[in-house]
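Q: Could you fold this chain for me?
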Amino acid sequence: MMQFDKELDAFIEAVKNTDAYIEYEKQKERIRAYPDLKIRIDDYRKKNYLLQTSENTNELFEQFDDFIREVEEFQEIPMVHDFLEKELAYCRMIQQINDSMLMAFAMDFE
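A: Sure. Below is the predicted structure, expressed as structure tokens.
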């Protein structure tokens, strides 16, 4: 198990050395200097998450359209745009890691 722990630590360190992670961390630090903007970004992220995980499909398209109109200008703020862009790149990398692991072990669950 110690070998696995070492390799896991090395993998985690490799992820932390990727451009996606480094750039995301830079943007997080940059945003922390603007508490009001960070609160607005966190609200945006929360609303976005709730919409994406909503089970109320009857009104979902209308709610999503309202949300897009509501945040359109907000997303155009350069600092917000940069943060969301880097966050998305980081999230996609993590999703790719998860997908690769699932595919590597999928045959174990057939």
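A (continued): The chain has a mean pLDDT of 91.
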